[in-house]
Design a protein that fits this description.
This protein is of the alpha/beta class. It folds into 2 domains: 15-75, no CATH class; 86-199 and 245-348, Rossmann fold. The chain is built from 16 helices and 9 strands. It has helices spanning 3-6, 13-21, 30-39, 42-51, 61-75, 86-96, 106-116, 133-142, 161-165, 170-174, 192-195, 209-220, 233-243, 247-256, 269-276, 293-304; strands spanning 122-128, 146-152, 176-180, 258-264, 280-290, 310-317, 323-324, 331-332, 342-348. The strands form 2 sheets. A 7-stranded mixed sheet has the order 3-2-1-4-5-9-6, sandwiched between helices. The chain has a two-stranded antiparallel ribbon with strand order 7-8. Helix 4 crosses helix 5, helix 6 (86-96) packs across helix 7 (106-116) and helix 6 packs antiparallel against helix 8. Its main location: nucleus. This is tRNA (adenine(58)-N(1))-methyltransferase non-catalytic subunit TRM6. Belongs to the TRM6/GCD10 family. Residues 210-235 have a biased composition (Basic and acidic residues).
């Protein structure tokens, strides 16, 4: 059924002819196109397709541009290598896998760091589920002049693939310190026997039972005839432990008080805020990102009731809408997300 004719829209004779021709309007065969792609660049292939099209000359200017753009996307693929940055990584994930970074746009990422007051020489406490995007962005901004305390729940840190893609300076990457939230329960307790040891993620065991077990497993998998030992995971673990700050150093940072608190999590923001807010120094900035306004609205109401603890509580939404700008055809992109997320900002006063 032709809905266009029912609506009173009469297509032009040229459009009718092109529709009836189907694939007969292209003189080049698939074999010819493959041969051209092997011996010439994509731009020449597109020009050859346009020249061999029997209907190209009868198209309108807009239809010609659309035809050339569609053929270029198919036959003239170009790759541009860009220096990685937090904004580019955020945009790349937003286009291909937004759920991995909680749909965090580049502009929202920049606003999150600004409201948190991230700058060189500060101690920033971060709790995020954005695949390392927020953590890496903070490390990129301070450039090794400060500390990024990246908290996590469970027995091992989450993946920070985004931070690894940013090509951070070694000094900047070394400023990131992962810590389990469970260590905050003993942050004000002095433990001379273990505070001098490197910060560990799992339950601390002075007898090094887990490491000894790895040694035994490595010996079992080593053939008796081999004179050279297999690569030892224990050596790598020892190296990683040596590069980490001590447990006592971490406690001193937290006891001193952090300058910024940044939260971007899928977990309950109330629980995370209740756990981390006591370790923020007076005058420190708070920035919380969430894709759900309901969770932040409830947190906003709760913090407003605590005027003795925090001030300047604000709930912000930033709009970023891409538009198509063409003569007579300018409009917002119809496939953009309706809302990119919300940021709650505040300042601790006591």
């Amino acid at each position: 059924e032709d809905f266009g004719r029912d609506a009173g829209v009469q297509p032009s004779d040229a459009a009718e002819a092109r529709r009836d021709l189907g694939s007969m309007n292209q003189k080049l065969r698939a074999e010819d196109v493959k041969r051209l792609k092997r011996t010439h660049d994509g731009a020449l292939v597109v020009r050859a397709l346009a020249a061999a099209s029997t209907t190209f000359s009868g198209m309108t200017e807009f239809a010609r541009c659309k035809y050339l753009r569609r053929k270029s996307e198919k036959h003239a693929v170009t790759v541009r290598a860009c220096r990685p940055s937090p904004a580019k990584i955020a945009h790349s994930y937003l286009m291909r896998a937004p759920e991995k970074t909680m749909h965090l746009r580049p502009d929202l990422l920049g606003a999150l760091l600004t409201y948190a007051g991230v700058r060189a020489g500060t101690i920033s406490m971060v709790f995020e589920n954005t695949n390392g995007l927020v953590c890496g962005a903070v490390a990129d901004r301070i450039q090794g002049h400060g500390v990024v305390l990246n908290g996590f729940s469970g027995s091992s840190p989450p993946g920070i693939d985004c931070a690894k893609m940013m090509d951070l300076d070694p000094m900047a990457f070394a400023s990131v310190v992962h810590f389990p939230l469970s260590i905050l329960d003993v942050i004000h307790i002095d433990e001379p026997q273990v505070d001098s040891m490197p910060l560990r993620y799992e339950q601390l065991n002075p007898d090094r039972e887990s490491i000894d077990q790895k040694d035994q497993d490595a010996e079992k998998h080593t053939a008796p005839s081999e004179h050279q030992p297999a690569p030892d995971d224990n050596s790598r673990l020892s190296y990683l432990l040596e590069t980490r700050p001590s447990r006592g150093q971490f406690k001193s940072w937290v006891r001193k008080g952090c300058d910024s608190l940044i939260i971007a999590t899928r977990h309950d923001v109330f629980d995370v805020m209740e756990r981390l807010l006591p370790h923020l120094a007076p005058g420190g900035s708070i920035a919380v990102f969430s894709s759900s306004i309901q969770r932040l609205a409830e947190l906003h109401h709760t913090l407003c009731q605590r005027g003795d603890l925090v001030k300047r509580v604000e709930l912000i939404e930033l709009n970023l809408t891409e538009h198509q700008i063409l003569p007579g055809r300018s409009h917002p992109n119809m496939t953009d997300y309706g809302a990119g997320g919300y940021i709650l900002s505040a300042m601790k006063v006591s």
